[in-house]
């Protein structure tokens, strides 16, 4: 969901740019953000179980655009859900099913606009969809990696270790991780906004300055205002969080101060939740392409209580981790994808059309939900 209001507060240092300024460099791509945008245009087909590759074509058009301008894309995909977020995902799935039922009913009534709006809310991007995009990327030599858990942490780790020099994403949570160069709001022509962490001290705004702030204080502000790992205290937004961190510095003193505010109610277990969220940003498990195994974004200090690390996920065996990272294993079920050779003709690329064998991807021993059942029935790809 990102940090509500953060990009607005950073408006004075956002630069209008073009992706060609990154020519000769490698940028990490939050691939699921492209897939989510891609399914919007084919939501009706997906909800009806019809075959479509619209979401793949959408993402690949961005890939080709980056390469045209000399930028090397490094596609990073989400993996499994972090512990503690399964309840949130179950609630989201319930809402998606409700939207799908409403949308299909509106479709029967030929209320196309209303149906489209509901069905767009009903579609979830699945590992199988991601696998189709990975397959397409590999056909043209574009590097891909599936994170064991969240793409945000994986992207930050790749930037931190120098594998990529910038990150294309719509998620401001990346700044809470410590991302140095965020490329956001990029359109199909390559126009974008960029945020450079080195410019934080130059922020101009009424009552909001990060001059002298540490990365730790910035992360505290993001967590306190509400993030993916911890909801905000009711009636406490980004500016309020900024003022509290600026004055009190530590989580204990910050939360103690809020408890004395009669207008706000702090959950009893909020401090524990804050500590877990902070450590999840710092120590989440990711995949190291060089070592070919899972590592933590940063190693925790010896004194960190293990109970606060349970939100970071768990380490998987090296073989399973490698299988997930390269796209051979479903990151949620840990089961393999089965490849069945089929023939497709006149596959269009940016340069020419050609005919060659392709692979249809099915997941072993998986019963697909209605929305994605069309994958199991495909016989060819159409463009």
From TrEMBL:
XPG-I domain mapped to chain residues: 138-210
Keyword Iron found: no
Classification via SUPFAM superfamilies: 5' to 3' exonuclease, C-terminal subdomain, PIN domain-like
One MF annotation (Gene Ontology) recorded for this entry: 5'-3' DNA exonuclease activity
Any single GO BP term: DNA repair
Residue ranges of domain XPG N-terminal in the record: 1-99
Coiled-coil regions listed: none
Gene Ontology cellular-component terms listed: nucleus
Subcellular location: Nucleus
CDD domains (alphabetical): H3TH_EXO1, PIN_EXO1
Cofactors named for this entry: Mg(2+)
Gene3D superfamilies attached to this UniProt entry: 5' to 3' exonuclease, C-terminal subdomain, 5'-nuclease
Pfam family, one: XPG_I
UniProt-listed InterPro entries: 5-3_exonuclease_C_sf, EXO1_H3TH, HhH2, PIN-like_dom_sf, PIN-like_EXO1, XPG-I_dom, XPG/Rad2, XPG_CS
Major location category of this protein: nucleus
Family, per entry: Belongs to the XPG/RAD2 endonuclease family. EXO1 subfamily.
PANTHER family: DNA DAMAGE-INDUCIBLE PROTEIN DIN7-RELATED, FLAP ENDONUCLEASE FAMILY MEMBER
Name under which the protein is recorded: PIN domain-like protein
């Amino acid at each position: 969901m990102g940090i509500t209001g953060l990009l607005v507060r950073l408006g004075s240092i956002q630069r209008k740019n073009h992706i060609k300024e990154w020519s000769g460099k490698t940028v990490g791509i939050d691939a699921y953000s492209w897939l989510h945008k891609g399914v919007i245009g084919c939501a009706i087909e997906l909800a009806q179980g019809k075959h479509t590759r619209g979401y793949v074509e959408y993402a690949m058009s961005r890939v080709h655009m980056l390469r045209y301008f000399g930028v090397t894309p490094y596609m990073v995909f989400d993996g499994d859900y972090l512990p503690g977020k399964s309840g949130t995902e179950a609630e989201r799935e319930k809402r998606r099913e409700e939207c799908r039922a409403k949308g299909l009913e509106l479709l029967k009534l030929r209320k196309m606009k209303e149906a489209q709006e509901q069905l767009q809310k009903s579609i979830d991007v699945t590992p199988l969809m991601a696998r189709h995009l990975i397959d397409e990327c590999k056909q043209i030599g574009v590097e891909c990696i599936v994170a064991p858990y969240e793409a945000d942490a994986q992207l930050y780790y790749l930037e931190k270790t120098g594998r990529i020099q910038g990150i294309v994403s719509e998620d401001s949570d990346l700044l809470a991780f410590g991302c140095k160069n965020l490329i956001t709001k990029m359109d199909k022509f390559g126009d974008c906004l960029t945020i450079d962490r080195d410019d934080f001290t130059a922020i101009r705004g009424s009552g909001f300055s990060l001059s002298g702030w540490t990365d730790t204080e910035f992360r505290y502000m993001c967590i306190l205002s509400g993030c993916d790992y911890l909801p905000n205290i009711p009636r406490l937004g980004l500016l309020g969080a900024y003022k509290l961190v600026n004055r009190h510095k530590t989580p204990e003193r910050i939360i103690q101060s809020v408890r004395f505010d009669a207008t706000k109610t702090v959950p009893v277990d909020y401090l524990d939740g804050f500590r877990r969220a902070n450590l999840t940003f710092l120590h989440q498990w990711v995949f190291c392409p060089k070592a070919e195994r899972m590592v933590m974004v940063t190693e925790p200090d010896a004194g960190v209580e293990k109970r606060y690390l349970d939100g970071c996920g768990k380490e998987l065996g090296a073989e399973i981790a490698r299988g997930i990272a390269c796209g051979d294993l479903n990151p949620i079920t840990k089961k393999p994808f089965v490849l069945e050779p089929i023939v497709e003709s006149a596959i269009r690329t940016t340069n020419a059309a050609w005919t060659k064998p392709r692979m249809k991807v099915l997941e072993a021993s998986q019963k697909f939900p209605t929305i994605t059942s069309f994958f199991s029935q495909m016989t060819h790809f159409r463009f």
